[in-house]
Structures are given as structure tokens and as C-alpha cells.
Design goal:
This protein has helices spanning 3-7, 22-36, 44-47, 50-57, 68-72, 81-95. It is mainly α. The chain has one domain. The chain is globular and about 50 Å long. The two termini are 21 Å apart.
Length: 100
């Protein structure tokens, strides 16, 4: 992931690493920030599996996956991760969910 390109987006800054649980931390920090910046407050409990994020991002080992089966089933399209993430940031800025 090209972090400098991601952080070049308006209102996105690179912060120092901080270990936290997504299940107990992320979902509860946003409401106060949203109100202070007059942002829309999405129903994150419906959209995000915080526990899954803890599992994926909190692992102390590498996750090795094989895409062979999915490609054999006909799914061959690839997506540039950085472009997709930047597009998602811009969409959320446009929708008023995050600051622009």
C-alpha cells in the first residue's frame, strides 16, 4: 500500500502506530468527532464486523492465501488497492461521512 499517496488525500494524515481493538475502540470514537465536524453518523454496527477486523489486523502472523480456486471459478478481475481505497475516501467525503 502506498501510504504517502493515501495520506496526500485531503483531511487524511498519517499518525503514529497505536494498537487498539476495533471491536471496543473504533465504533465508539466516531460519534463525538462526527458531531463536532457536522458529519453524518452512519450505522457502523450494521456495516462493519469490528471483531473480524481485530482478527485480520491484530494477527501476529502473516496470512497466506491462495487465489487459485476463485480464479478457476471465473473471477479474474483485479483491482488496484490504493485506487480503490482513495475512491472510497472520496466517496465518503462527498457523502459527508468523513471530513473533506
Amino acid at each position: 500500500m502506498p501510504w504517502p499517496a493515501l495520506c496526500a488525500q485531503p483531511a487524511v494524515t498519517l499518525a503514529p502506530f497505536a494498537a487498539l481493538s476495533r471491536a471496543t475502540g473504533s465504533a465508539f470514537r466516531f460519534p463525538g468527532n462526527a458531531a463536532a465536524q457536522k458529519l453524518k453518523l452512519p450505522a457502523y454496527e450494521k456495516a462493519v464486523g469490528w471483531g473480524f477486523g481485530d482478527c485480520v489486523f491484530g494477527a501476529e502472523f502473516d496470512v497466506v492465501s491462495d487465489m487459485t480456486k476463485i480464479r478457476l471459478a471465473g473471477f479474474s478481475e483485479t483491482v488496484d488497492s490504493a485506487e480503490a481505497l482513495i475512491a472510497a475516501i472520496r466517496r465518503q467525503q462527498r457523502d459527508g461521512t468523513i471530513p473533506s
